[in-house]
Amino acid sequence: MKTILVMLIAIMLTLVGAAQEETSSITKDLEGVEISPPQFTGITNYIETNGNFDLVKKYLKQNIKYPREAVRCNIEGTEVVKFTVTEAGAIKDIRILNTVCPAIDAEMVRVLQSTKGMWQPGLKNGQPASMTQEVTLAFALNKSDATVVKEFQHKAKLNFNKACKLMIADHKIKKAERYFTKAINYMPKHESLYYLRAMCRHELGNVSGAADDLDRFKEITGYTVATEELAFDAVNLKKAEELIKLPL
Fold first, then answer.
1. How far apart are CA 221 and CA 50, in angstroms?
2. What are phi and psi of 3, to 5 degrees?
3. To 10 degrees, what angle do helices 102-113 and 54-63 make?
4. Considering only 42-56, 188-202, 203-217, which range has the smallest mean pLDDT?
5. Which residue has better confidence, 84 or 39?
6. Three-state DSSP class for 90?
7. Is the separation of the CB atoms in 201 and 213 below 8 Å?
8. Residue 50 pLDDT
9. What's the CA gap between 157 and 159, in Å, rounded?
C-alpha cells in the first residue's frame, strides 16, 4: 500500500496589507508598531497560552488526507494557501495561491476550516487585529522529507531550464509559460519564476494573469514591477537573461 507524506515546508505571517515576514513571536514594522502574530492552540475553546507553531504542523499532518483522485493520478506538488485570522480569532478569506489540483485545494480548505476556535488573534500594540497567514504544503507520494525537497528542487530546475530556452532562444512563449507553471508547482516561493511567467503572459495578452504574477512577485520580494518592464524588448530581455543566471 502506498505511504503518503504531507510535509509542512513553511509558515508565513503578515499583517493585513503589509509585506511578508517570517514567523516570529514579536515583530516590528517600519513604523515601530509592535505586532504579535496569531497563535494556533490546536484545541477548541482554548485557554490563553503562548501559541506554538509546531502545533500547526502537527495538526495539518494528522488531519490532511491525500485525496484518492490525486493518489490515483500520481499528482504531486506544493500547495500555497493564504487566509485571515480575524481580531476575534476566526478564520476567513481562505485563498489558494498555488494549486496542485482541485481535490487537494478542497482538502486544504476543509482542514483549515476545521481549525475554527483554535486561534488566538494577533495583536497590534496590544490590541487584537486581523492578520493573514500563509501555509505552504508539499504533497508527495512514497517519499521521505529529504527526498521530497531534493526531488522537487530537481523537477523545478528541469522545467525552469526548458522554459528559459523556449522563452529566450526559441521564442515559443506559450510553451515557456506552461513550463514556468510546472516549475512553480514544485517551488512556488521562487520570485524569478513569477517574474518570467509574467513576461510570457504579458506577451500572450493575458493581462490579468501577468498582474497576478506581479502581485505574487511583490508579496515575495517587496518590489513593485511596472507593466512596461514586461515587454519583450532588448532591455527587458537582458534583465530576463540575468534572472535566468541566478540559481533556482
1. 30
2. -95, 155
3. 120
4. 42-56
5. 84
6. coil
7. yes
8. 43
9. 5
pLDDT confidence tier of residue 9, bands split at 50, 70 and 90: very low
Task: Determine how β-strand 91-98 pairs with β-strand 77-85.
Answer: antiparallel
CA angle 59, 80, 46 (to 5 degrees): 30
Q: What's the Rg (C-alpha) of the chain?
A: 19
* Residue whose cell numbers read 482542514: 111
Which tens digits make up the pLDDT trace of 160-200? 999 999 999 999 999 999 999 999 999 998 999 999 999 99
> According to the model, what pLDDT value does residue 36 have?
61
CB 125 within 8 A of CB 34: yes
DSSP 48: P
Q: What is the mean pLDDT of the chain?
A: 80
Are residues 133 and 38 in contact, defined by beta-carbon separation less than 8 angstroms?
yes
CB 135 within 8 A of CB 6: no
Whether 120 and 39 have beta carbons less than 8 Å apart is answered as yes
Q: Are 89 and 120 in contact (CB under 8 A)?
A: yes
H helix intervals, the chain: 54-63, 68-72, 102-113, 145-164, 173-186, 191-203, 207-221, 234-245
Residue 198 identity (one-letter amino acid): A
